[in-house]
């Protein structure tokens, strides 16, 4: 049995063989061979033919539904500042390989007891990045003393488990060259810059700087929103930081994900990023009720990731790697490409579609692909 | 509260402390006539700004002024108006009626009818119809239609053919149509009377059946009765003048309207000039076809630089006659010889063509239900009712539900009633004759009150299972006719620069196979078919094997040579698109030298 299976390993992907063996159950050698032959036949028939223009068909298959997309953003119920870019803008964002997303967000899955709602609020707060400014009720600038008086929000501090001492410790680490004193009133702090204050503006600048001092949580996570998804609790966030979130012990690292493809590539590698591109595009398409074959999206994702780095479908990304000068020039910024080509003496071998259309030659696709290979004898004079 | 800013025509002029009182005072003074009646004022309490407008270009409409829930127009005024003792302008002078613009309307509360009036109201509509524009108020039962359809219907009426002006015969209007037998609509609104619609009607009353006819009226198409067309339905005349001037050029040279001599540059053929009289102008009632010359004209040479053109000036004059345009034909209707502003001779020749409705012509009712003729059916094959009525137009029922043009159906039923009772029906929007009264009248005339009739298939004579909704409607023929739009090309003119086909019907151009159409060929792998499609500008170019630049072919010596390497190098011919050759030339002008490296194909 195993001999036969081994025989077919070159002709079929492992997964198909496993599936066939599993479905067949116990059979005779003859029957197994017969069945696998049929599988090979079907497999070969479903493979794309040489000379088929897969790229163009993919481009049109993704591009045409793009013209029908409508809704741009999707809002979470009740949370005004939390919305997700969807539709065509999101597709463009993914395929262009933009590093700055318009709405970075994460979906954090939790481990067993926590995903049933245990400590959900505390855990959510642990993830959210807290800055000093978030815990302050009021800033007051005392011009006479040239000091800043801060009124703290004790309720918020309590919810976060932040003591006054801990807060002062973190604050003094965050800002250097300042004297930090407790006020006689319980919830107030006084900040006084060491040395002389030259201008009033410096105090204002100091105030703004204080607001941004990091206290706790995960950097980059601006908002957290625990939601019930199916029969478990999931934390949705605005802002993303995959690396730090995965290190938390209550997070289910097998399912937690972000919509930032580049971050996935950094943390989990290029294969994960490729899958993420596919998932994200498919997600948008499905949300719009459009049906695009998975393999078109896979081809685009593959093209973006072949070099090991994510490159967008732009003139700086995938298009810049095209071999043909004329093809690059016909996409965008033609003068730049022609001038550079003339400086280096580039040669265009006319191997692809666009160049041949420009020269009115048959394109090397479909019926234009097969060619005669004859040894031509030189005419003797 | 902070003082309000005051703007006049958008320019800041100052501020006031009591905006409401200020605005009231302006309005008061305007009604008294102290301030011009053309001034409008608006107070915006959100921005705390007062805007006064007195410039041109604002759309304004008249409404009756209301004070304490009572309109200022009284029975007395109406009686005086009827006796012509006072005029409209008197009412405005007295501040009884005033014009509001869009901005001031924001501050006003206008009552729809007199019985809606409350003490809060500031104005009263003269009549609800006054909200609509001219063409929109022509639509009967307009208040039963969806607003978008009312808009479409109003727009369509502006494109209708009719009797647009009474002196069209002595005018030289460009590109106009006149309908042969226009009629007054049976279902009217009072606007028809006010605007003397009977003096310039723009449509015809036809019998419409709402049913399918073998699918030839799907997707908004309509089926026309050939018998109706032969009786003159939708027939119109198309006028288009051709114009020629004897232009004076610098240097004393001048155009000459005459039959061109045979030695003139660009002389067409004797046949083309056959219709011209001795003065070089065609005679009235001449039948002309494409290519015939209407006005013969000879112009001086374009450039006077070369010496030989000076010496043989008479022989180098250009032919510049005005001919019938591509795809047009007709009869010469009128010839006008006059002078232009500079005093040179000006000739205009008007050509007329009778347009009989054909497949592709556009028709519409007054409810935005436009459609194109899909089929013209012989009268014998049209469905007929028990009384022998055959519809002129068959309209598809699928046009109704999604567009919700209820007035279209109401007009049908009212038109039927009006035609049978021999009277016009008042369909004025908001104040029309009630539907149930019309239905009662139709019933008393011996018809179904829902407008349906038993009908028979015109081809087989079988009775239709369903009753068909038939009635009379006012239909308009729109100015978009296929005769002005039909176009095809196999060979034809090309552009000088790119050698690609010209664009557009007027230039007998080709239909572009664009970028996305190209993609379909590539996706099918039809490589060689794609090449053939793009062969329109292919050229054979000799290329120097040595330097890769484009070589020169000397036809006299039957010899190729390279302008850079001389005639000792090998030169081969290649086939490329002319556009690519042009691009190579443009590269060279940029200082980039493109080389073509040739290889044996096999």
What does the model show?
The complex is a heterodimer of chains A (381) and B (602). With 381 residues, chain A is an alpha+beta fold. Among the domains of chain A are: 2-46; 130-216; 322-368, DNA polymerase, domain 1 (Orthogonal Bundle). Chain A is 43% helix and 15% strand. Chain A is built from 16 helices and twelve strands. Chain A has a four-stranded antiparallel sheet with strand order 10-11-3-12. Chain A has a four-stranded antiparallel sheet with strand order 5-6-8-7, covered by helices on one side. A two-stranded antiparallel ribbon of chain A has the order 1-2. In chain A, helix 4 packs across helix 13 and helix 5 runs antiparallel to helix 12. The termini of chain A are far apart. The model of chain A has no long low-confidence stretch (mean pLDDT 85). With 602 residues, chain B is an alpha+beta fold. Chain B has three domains: 4-134, Hypothetical Protein Ta0175, Chain: A, domain 2, CATH 3.90.1070.20; 142-172 and 182-233 and 362-477, DNA-directed RNA polymerase, subunit 2, domain 6 (Dna-directed Rna Polymerase Ii 140kd Polypeptide, Chain: B, Domain 6, Beta Barrel), CATH 2.40.270; 237-355, RNA polymerase II, Rpb2 subunit, wall domain (OB fold (Dihydrolipoamide Acetyltransferase, E2P), Beta Barrel), CATH 2.40.50.150. In chain B, the strands form ten sheets. Chain B has a six-stranded mixed β-barrel. The longest helix of chain B has 16 residues, at 406-421. Chain B is extended. Classes of the chains: A alpha+beta (381), B alpha+beta (602). At the A-B interface, helix 4, helix 15 and helix 16 of A face helix 12, helix 13, strand 34 and helix 14 of B.
């Amino acid at each position: 049995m195993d001999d036969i299976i081994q025989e077919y390993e070159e002709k079929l992907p492992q997964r198909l063989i496993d599936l066939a063996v599993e479905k067949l159950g116990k059979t005779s050698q003859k029957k197994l061979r017969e069945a696998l032959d049929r599988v090979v036949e079907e497999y070969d028939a479903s493979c794309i033919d040489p000379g088929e223009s897969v790229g163009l068909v993919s481009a049109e298959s993704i591009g045409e539904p793009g013209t029908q997309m409508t809704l741009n953003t999707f809002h979470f119920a009740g949370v005004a500042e939390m919305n997700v870019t969807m539709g065509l803008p999101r597709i463009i964002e993914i395929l262009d390989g933009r590093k700055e997303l318009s709405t970075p967000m994460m979906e954090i899955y939790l481990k067993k007891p926590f995903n049933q709602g245990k400590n959900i609020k505390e855990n959510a707060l642990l993830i959210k990045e807290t800055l000093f400014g978030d815990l302050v009720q009021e800033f007051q600038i005392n011009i006479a003393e040239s000091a800043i008086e801060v009124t703290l929000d004790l309720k918020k501090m309590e919810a976060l488990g932040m003591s006054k001492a801990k807060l002062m410790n973190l604050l003094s680490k965050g800002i250097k060259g300042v004297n930090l004193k407790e006020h006689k009133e319980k919830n107030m702090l006084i900040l006084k810059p060491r040395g002389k204050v030259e201008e009033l503006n410096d105090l204002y600048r100091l105030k703004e700087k204080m607001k941004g001092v990091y206290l706790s949580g995960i950097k980059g996570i601006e908002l957290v929103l625990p939601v019930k998804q199916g029969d478990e609790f999931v934390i949705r966030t605005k802002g993303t930081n995959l690396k730090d979130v995965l290190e938390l012990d209550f997070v289910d690292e097998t399912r937690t994900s972000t919509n930032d493809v580049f971050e996935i590539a950094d943390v989990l590698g290029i294969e994960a990023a490729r899958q993420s591109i596919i998932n994200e595009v498919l997600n948008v398409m499905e949300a719009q009720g459009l049906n695009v074959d998975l393999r078109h999206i896979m081809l685009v994702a593959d093209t973006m990731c072949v070099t090991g780095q994510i490159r967008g479908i732009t003139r700086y990304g995938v298009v810049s790697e095209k071999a043909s000068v004329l093809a690059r020039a016909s996409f965008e910024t033609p003068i730049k490409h022609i001038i550079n080509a003339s400086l280096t003496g580039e040669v265009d071998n006319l191997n692809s579609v666009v160049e041949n259309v420009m020269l009115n030659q048959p394109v090397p696709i479909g019926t234009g692909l097969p060619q005669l290979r004859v040894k031509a004898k030189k005419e003797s004079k | 509260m902070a003082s309000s800013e005051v703007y006049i025509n958008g320019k800041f002029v100052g501020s006031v402390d009591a905006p409401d009182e200020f605005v009231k005072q302006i309005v008061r003074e305007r009604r008294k006539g102290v301030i011009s009646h053309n001034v409008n004022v608006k107070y915006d309490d959100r921005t705390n700004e007062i805007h006064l407008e007195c410039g041109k270009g604002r759309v304004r409409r008249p409404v009756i002024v209301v004070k304490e829930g009572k309109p200022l127009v009284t029975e007395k005024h109406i009686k005086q108006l009827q006796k012509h003792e006072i005029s409209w302008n008197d009412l405005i002078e007295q501040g009884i009626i005033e014009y509001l613009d869009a901005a001031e309307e924001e501050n006003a509360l206008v009552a729809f009818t007199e019985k809606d009036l409350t003490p809060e109201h500031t104005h009263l509509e003269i009549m609800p119809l006054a909200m609509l524009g001219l063409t929109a108020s022509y639509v009967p039962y307009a208040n039963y239609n969806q607003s978008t359809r009312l808009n479409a219907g109003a727009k369509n009426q502006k494109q209708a053919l009719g009797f647009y002006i009474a002196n069209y015969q002595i005018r030289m209007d460009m590109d106009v149509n006149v309908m042969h037998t226009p009629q007054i609509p049976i279902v009217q609104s009072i606007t028809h009377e006010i605007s003397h619609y009977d003096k310039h009607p723009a449509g015809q009353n036809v019998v419409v059946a709402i049913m399918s006819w073998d699918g030839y009226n799907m997707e908004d198409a309509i089926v026309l009765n050939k018998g109706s067309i032969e009786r003159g339905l939708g027939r119109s005349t198309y006028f288009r003048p051709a114009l020629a001037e004897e232009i004076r050029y610098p240097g004393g040279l001048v155009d000459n309207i005459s039959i061109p001599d045979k030695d003139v540059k660009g002389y067409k053929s004797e046949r083309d000039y056959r219709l011209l009289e001795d003065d070089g102008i065609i005679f009235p009632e001449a039948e002309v076809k494409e290519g015939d010359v209407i006005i013969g004209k000879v112009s001086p040479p374009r450039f006077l630089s070369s010496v030989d053109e000076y010496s043989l000036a008479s022989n180098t004059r250009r032919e510049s006659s005005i001919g019938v345009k591509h795809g047009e034909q007709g009869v010469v209707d009128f010839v006008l010889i006059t002078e232009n502003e500079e005093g040179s001779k000006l000739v205009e020749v008007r050509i007329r063509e009778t347009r009989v409705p054909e497949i592709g012509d556009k028709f519409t009712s007054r409810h935005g239900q436009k459609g194109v003729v899909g089929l013209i059916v012989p009268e014998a094959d049209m469905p007929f009712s028990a009384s022998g009525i055959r519809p002129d137009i068959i309209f598809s029922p699928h046009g109704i539900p999604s567009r919700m043009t209820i007035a279209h159906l109401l007009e049908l039923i009212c038109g039927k009633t009006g035609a049978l009772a021999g009277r016009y029906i008042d369909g004025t929007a908001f104040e029309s004759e009630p539907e149930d009264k019309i239905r009662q009248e139709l019933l008393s005339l011996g018809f179904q009150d829902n407008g349906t009739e038993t009908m028979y298939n015109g081809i087989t004579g079988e009775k239709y299972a369903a009753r068909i909704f038939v009635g009379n409607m006012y239909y308009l023929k729109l100015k978009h006719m296929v005769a002005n739009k039909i176009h095809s090309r196999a060979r034809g003119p090309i552009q000088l620069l790119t050698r690609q086909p010209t664009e557009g019907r007027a230039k007998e151009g080709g239909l572009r196979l664009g970028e996305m159409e190209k993609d379909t060929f590539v996706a099918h792998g039809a490589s060689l078919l794609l090449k053939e499609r793009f062969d329109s500008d292919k050229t054979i170019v000799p290329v120097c094997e040595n330097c890769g630049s484009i070589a020169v072919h000397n036809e006299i010596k039957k010899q190729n040579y390279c302008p850079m390497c001389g005639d000792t190098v090998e030169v081969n011919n290649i086939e490329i698109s002319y556009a690519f050759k042009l691009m190579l030339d443009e590269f060279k002008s940029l200082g980039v030298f493109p080389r073509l490296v040739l290889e044996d194909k096999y």
